[in-house]
């Protein structure tokens, strides 16, 4: 069981882990041992997550979200399979915890009277400077 918050916990049956050989440096260990982990969480079918959280999670997951509604997280940072499992689970927990936070609704504000006056005065002064740059007429 993966505990996200006090009221949300992900059951083990919702998470599937598969192991494969990692790429990159590591000598003979890379060629012999399957240390990289691919964690798959069926988010769309999860009974633990409410619908608004699922929609925010889909937006946050980006290309890690599959067409079937699952989140796929890969980790091959360390040479240890157990450590890679822990890292992948921590990433999933952090992603879900971020989706739990409801974003604040932005309230549009009006500029103050003084700031409008200052902006218009600056525009007028700039326009006068530019007007003085013209050709001098014959007098």
Tags for this model:
139 residues, alpha+beta, three-stranded antiparallel β-sheet, two-stranded antiparallel ribbon
Strand order of the largest sheet: 3-4-5
- Note the run of SSEs as H and E: EEEHEHEHH
Could you say which structural class the secondary elements and strand pairing correspond to? alpha+beta
**Total strand count, please?**
5
The helix fraction, in percent, is 25-40%
Strand content: 15-25%
Q: What's the oligomerization state?
A: single chain
Helix count equals: 4
Shape: elongated
Distance between the termini: 90 Å
Largest sheet: 3 strands, antiparallel
Provide the gyration radius in Å: 28 Å
The low-pLDDT segments are none
Mean pLDDT across the residues is: 86
Question: Would you kindly provide a written description of the structure presented here, covering whatever features stand out?
Answer:
The chain is of the alpha+beta class and 139 residues long. Helices cover 40% and strands 15% of the residues. It is built from four helices and five strands. It has helices spanning 28-32, 51-61, 81-100, 113-131; strands at residues 2-3, 9-10, 15-20, 36-41, 71-75. The strands form two sheets. Strands 3-4-5 form a three-stranded antiparallel beta sheet, covered by helices on one side. Strand 1 (2-3) and strand 2 (9-10) form a beta hairpin. It is elongated.
């Amino acid at each position: 069981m993966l505990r996200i918050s006090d009221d949300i916990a992900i059951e083990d049956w919702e998470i599937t882990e598969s192991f494969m050989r990692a790429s990159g440096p590591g000598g003979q260990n890379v060629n012999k041992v399957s240390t990289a982990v691919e964690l798959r969480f069926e988010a769309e079918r999860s009974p633990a997550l409410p619908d608004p959280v699922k929609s925010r999670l889909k937006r946050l997951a980006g290309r890690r979200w599959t067409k079937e509604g699952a989140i796929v997280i890969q980790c091959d940072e360390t040479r240890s399979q157990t450590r890679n499992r822990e890292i992948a689970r921590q990433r999933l927990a952090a992603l879900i915890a971020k989706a739990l936070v409801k974003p604040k609704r932005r309230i549009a504000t009006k500029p103050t009277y003084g700031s409008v006056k200052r902006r218009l005065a600056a525009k007028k002064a700039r326009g006068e400077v530019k007007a003085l740059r013209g050709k001098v007429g014959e007098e």
